[in-house]
Model the fold of this input.
Amino acid sequence: MTSRRYRWAGVALAVTAVLGSAACAPSTTPTPAPAVSSGSASAKVQPLTAPGAARAAIDQLVAAAGTHQAVKVDISATEASLSIVRNGQPFTWAWTNGVVGRAQSDIANVNQASFDPGTFNLDNVGELFKVAAQVSGSQQNQQLQIVEYNQGQVLMTVTTNPESATVFFRPDGTLVHTLDFTTAEGISEALRDCLGTSTQVGVIGYRPESGLYVELPGSQQGVITVVTRPKSLPRWAASEKGTLPQLFDASLVNPAVVASIIQLASAGAPVSPDAVASATDSSPTGRPTSTQSTASTAPTQAGGSDESSSASSVQWVIDRRDKLAQPVLRVTAHGTTRAFTLDGVEVTHLVGS
Done:
């Protein structure tokens, strides 16, 4: 396995781009478009936070644009806009008080990923705003945006004005939680985010300074894809030159067992299958699946126990560099590295550190 230097400035730039784009909502002084307008401007119009209202407004904007492929969507309680790229030029349509019309576009990057707004859960934007307020601590002037985050990954974000923490949602409306990587739930969610549809992996690991990561086969020989899930941000993918150890089935990794081994190793305790079994949570995958996941259901432990805090400083990696029949988990804690099978048998004496 080749050592990596992760450029986290890239993550900061991506988040800054998302925030900057969200803050610059397009001018919404539309020219009325009766063909796609939902009634006269004098008719009572529901706020877009009402169930179904945002979806109806975006459907009207899609009809006005004449395409299902957008590069950006913005939604507030009272206005919505949709931007597309056609023949290399950006165009924006806005919805205000039930009237749809053209608006000035603020799209600078016409090469960003396009997406179908119909594949995003916009059925209840008010509920998304409620969850975002619980996470960020603010509900002032909330705005939801759909835009590319990284390497074709398109997410929903909710921001506020004045600015507070950006809250991320997946296309299905589930919250991108702040994770505790010492728990089965935190490891499970991070793995699901990093792996996506991939089943074969070269490396699964964790570094305290960056988060949980996986190394996958790249698009060509001599290139690998490194996908990292930071504690409080969505997954981040990058292509790097390198080669992988022998691939293994990611389903062999039980997040509850890994969490238990990490807890025991960080405490300097003996590790064995029996010790792991007694420490393992009976609900190993506990990842929240509700569309309306709240801050209280996030797989993180605010404040954390001393044991959890100690375990969070542990570095670990799973791979097949030893060319054994099964992957080996190496845990480095307090300057000492120990090796284990994925069910908790210590094999440091066989494979070294």
About this structure: The longest helix spans residues 8-23. Confidence is low (pLDDT under 50) at residues 1-42, 281-298. The CA atoms of residues 52 and 123 lie 5 Å apart.
